[in-house]
Amino acid sequence: MASVDQRSEPADVIDPMLWRDAQELLSRHTAPDATGLCVECGRSWPCVPRRCAERAAAASRRPWNESWTARHDLRTVPAPRAGRHRAGTHRSSGNQGAY
Asked: Does 11 reside within a domain?
């Protein structure tokens, strides 16, 4: 038997999968810490994943031809790293390797 997600989307949502994906990201990237960084990813608030999820949530209520780029944008949000950003540590600003 297939399990059913208990969160049901609002009635005006046209793309339920996009809405659920956006809600999952929004639930992780919830607030900044005392220094103004996202507590999930350590980026400045509002972080890129949060802004992308907000756009995707809004796009899930629009016709597909207006929202198809939001689905792509949501899929390109980097996955969280194993070690989260800690205050006081330096993050690399660019590619340090060779091609």
From this structure: no
Alpha-carbon distance of 27 to 76, in angstroms, equals 18
How many structural domains is the chain composed of? 1
Q: Is residue 62 within 8 Å of 83, Cβ to Cβ?
A: no
Structural domain of residue 34, as residue ranges? 16-75
Q: Token pair of 77, please?
A: 């949000």
CB 24 within 8 A of CB 13: no
Kindly report whether the global pTM for this prediction surpasses the value 0.85.
Answer: no
CA atoms within 13 Å, Cβ hemisphere of 60:
21
Digit-coded pLDDT (tens) for 3-36: 445 468 899 999 999 999 999 999 999 999 999 9
